[in-house]
Amino acid sequence: MHISELDELEASVSDLLTMAKVELEQNRLQQQRDRQIQEAVSQIEGRLKPLLAKVEQMLEEYTREGGSPDSETKLKLEKKAADIRQEIAEAPALASQLADRQLILSEERLLDERITEQTTQWRYELKADLLEMIEEQSDFFSATDAAIAVRGYSNDLKAIGALEEVVEALINQINSHSEEGPVARLRGSHEQTLTFIYNKALENRSRVDRAPDVQPNTRHRKSEKRPALYTDLSGKVLVFGGHDRLQTAVKNRLRDSIINLIWYTEQDGLQLAAQGETQIAGSDLIIIVTGYASHSLTERAIEACRRANKSYEIVNTTGMTRLLEVIESGLKAKQLARHWK
Question: pTM for the whole thing?
């Protein structure tokens, strides 16, 4: 097995482990959400039901003692009782909103951890590419010129504590091709030394017409670009259902992609969602989110897709991670299908 294949295997295992970790954490968060809803409903009902009982008891006393039915106080009590009953009836919905707000915050943290792990892996692969680049330089000037490429990644190297190792490799390679002995040496910190060699490399470039431009290959890294989630996605995605907080969170995560995301939530109402039905025919991916979507909104969206002979994905979630997975897998499948046409 070639070393590059080992790198690829290692990276794929790392990605798979990260995905497994995210999936397990998603399940835990969903279970936690359900518990939070139950606890919140219990707390709300635990405070409101005793209040309702007191108000209803007082109304019964009014009835028993023949109080005036037009009494302003009695009317206020009746209104207060109705308000409390409404609050109790809406307790599950309120608890769900609070739990989903916390769920999205937790999912944001999960995604940030995922990109951090991928970036760390990419930085170690970058270090390997830079060390190979330095080792491959066969003369004094190209070895010195390598400092320009290294300096461009100094922050990435510092983040994994690898700047010292790479700078020392650079010093050794320059000295190994120097006709005047070990001219490169540590000057202050490793970062200061790199800056000094970098400036020398720029001076060397200014003296010749065709200067070397030493850059690392991507033998260990999959790409020259730092990892970023969803940036390679493109297409038109139409979403029905969900809630405003979910819409905002998903849009923020997809802001660096080339996705035209059109979304009609339950809060938008059926009339506005009906306008979205005209977008179905030209969409690459249609998703119906049943979390917070009314039966009428869901049925209308499904029927509109059937009339347009367009397939759709039904996603039963109130969180964003599952929805992002569906968008990513759906668009990549479309891209792959277009590639093989």
Answer: 0.69
